[in-house]
Amino acid sequence: MGQLFRSEEMTLAQLFLQSEAAYCCVSELGEIGMVQFRDLNPDVNVFQRKFVNEVRRCEEMDRKLRFVEKEIKKANLAILDTGENPEVPFPRDMIDLEATFEKLENELKEINTNQEALKKNFLELTELKHILRRTQQFFDEMEDPSLLEESSTFLDPNEPIRAAPQRLGFVAGVIGRERIPTFERMLWRVCRGNVFLRQADIEDPLEDPTTGDQVHKSVFIIFFQGDQLKNRVKKICEGFRATLYPCPETPQERKEMLAGVNARIDDLQMVLNQTEDHRQRVLQAAAKTVRVWFIKVRKMKAIYHTLNLCNIDVTQKCLIAEVWCPVSDMDSIQFALRRGTEKSGSTVPSILNSMQTKQTPPTYNKTNKFTSGFQNIVDAYGIGSYREINPAPYTIITFPFLFAVMFGDLGHGALMTAAALYLVLRESRLMAQKNDNEIFTMVFAGRYIILLMGIFSMYTGLIYNDCFSKALNIFGSGWSVRPMFGERGANWSFTTLSENHVLQLDPAVDGVFKGPYPIGIDPIWSISINKLTFLNSFKMKMSVILGVIHMLFGVSLSLFNHLYFKKPLNIYLGFIPEIVFMSCLFGYLVILIFFKWVSFDARTSKDAPSLLIAFINMFLFQYSDPSNKPLYRGQMGLQIFLVIIALACVPCMLIVKTLVLRRQYLWQKHLGTQNFGGIRVSNGPTEDEAGIIQHDHLAPQTEDDPETCLLSPAFKEHEEEEFNFTDVAVHQAIHTIEYCLGCISNTASYLRLWALSLAHAQLSEVLWSMVMRIGLSSRSFGGFILLALIFFFFAVLTVAILLIMEGLSAFLHALRLHWVEFQNKFYGGQGFKFLPFTFESILDGRFEE
Q1: Cβ–Cβ contacts within 10 Å for residue 290, how many?
Q2: Would you say residue 790 lies in a domain?
Q3: Are residues 621 and 496 in the same domain?
Q4: Under 8 Å between Cβ of 168 and 154
Q5: pLDDT digit string (tens) for 786-837?
């Protein structure tokens, strides 16, 4: 469990791999996913590395598999996913895989080419069949005497009518249906009305052999006279991409040709069916193994890409790699290397040696399916510096709790818990489905966060006594109204209660207030007219208390960082002034809130002073205000003392720390020795002084920490650099001002707990009064149907507005409180993430890189 509170201890190791065993060893390291390889050839072009040819071969195989996958999806076939984790193929198996993929690709391309040619031929025959049928109808219509008179307009007007008409030429073809109007207008204009066009739609859509889309076409026939018009018509048809087909002039020839076309179409249809069946069989066989092929190829590619990061020994018999790895997993890494060596058949074992380095290691936090969501929340702000304290374990509790303070409703929390519980209980089945919906994937990844938020919301809803904007009277109200005369209490009669809509209960009267409600807020507040006034005061003070405690906890966590990194200066002149400053001011305010709650009862609450005015007067040193009496004896002296102590902490952080840093620099500068007769004698600090300037060599080296910058190994390597007092002073001044002002602004920021809690409660109450009350107003049988309809709308609005929108709003505000108000007290977030070499992404089905 301790690994959650601080990142894993990392080490830089040098790995010596024999050339014949390197492939298998890297494969085993990829299976366990515990090492991060460093690029030892940063200046070498990727095209000049040793294994670039193998990477290209893997990319070519990957391209062929993507082509096969595309064809499978085009055929609407499902890719079989059994969750199998195939072993990495040996390098000698690459030739067999390449031959298999080459054969499959060529076969599919040949099938597609033949099928496209057959479909194109089938389309032409189908269009010709429709032309022959339609043109016969056109010629039959032309034999009508009325149409013959119409066709006589093509003749010379000076020729006598009794002369025999000249023979007309014609062309027939097929054109897209949407081009018919434009096509007809163009013919009319170019040919000046000397052509006769007849067209008819083809009822069934035809399949485009190239794209596979369904297109609608029309058959047309154009009559004209003379070769000049014939050339014009053909050019227009060519421009509009119309397909012309030969059409016999005599009916007998057209009939014989149609019979031949139908016979060819039947034969071609049979060939097409056989080709499609063969293609389906090939794709179905490929669909069963394509996922396994993908995993094998991409594992091989990842291995060769990793091998390109290594150095080649001068003897060409050994590969040298440098890896970051957790110290706790060194045994597992050694065991994986032994497995890889045995698998390759090599007799020389691989060597793993830890190295001493001054480089900052990557940050690695081990997580599981429960803690990964909270760790992602922290990492979204910034990857933690190496070995600094991890906020994720505390976020597991504080994040859902602060969310629930803003979202406190027993009913809404129960709905959220039920939804998250469904995702948790069926997580295995839902993960196997591999849903590609981005929103669902995001919600599913945070299912445990949502579950805790729902449970905590049920708790705070019980404290607020709020369930769908209604109070639950579980234990009976602590207020009592006795409407019988002669008894102690309010002495209200039934008539008084029925005739008055507003009555005041005085808690100071005996018998009216029986005692506090066992848990949460008394349900009688739900029907009181001063409910909002009471809840305003209660939730505002509660927000301040929670905020100050949360910030003090964050400042306290910084102590563990200073202790671990052995930085006593940051403890004495950083942590202690910070915790004292906040405790003297805002910690004292929290104590005043509790003191006022305890010190005043129902009879004396009218004389209670205002905490806000008292807190303002504390900074102004005004204690003569007659309207705001002191809370306790000696308040003035204690508050003056606390303000002076708080103000004294500011120069400790602002000036004293800067001067001590300068003194430490001078000590470091004069830690050199003086020569006395060839003997080097040190004139450095004493043992006590040296203890102050100790610094751990693994501490994060960030520019934001002047002490770390001065005492880091990088500083020791460049001792000739002068200490810039101005830069350090300005940096420390910014930090001090930011912290002091942040204590005020961050405390005010926690008032969002109060604001969003009241907003959620009021929105829930408005939704009930404006929607649900309509359905409950009628008591007839028709009112039951109305209630069912109203409840449907009420449920939809509750889920859409109060659960999703309000829940997202409370989530974002809780996120901000953790990132800004909590984590900035102790969390640097300036590290870089540990990215181990692993095959896990390939096994999860994320094929695209």
Answers
A1: 22
A2: no
A3: no
A4: yes
A5: 888 888 888 999 999 999 999 999 999 999 999 999 999 999 889 999 999 9
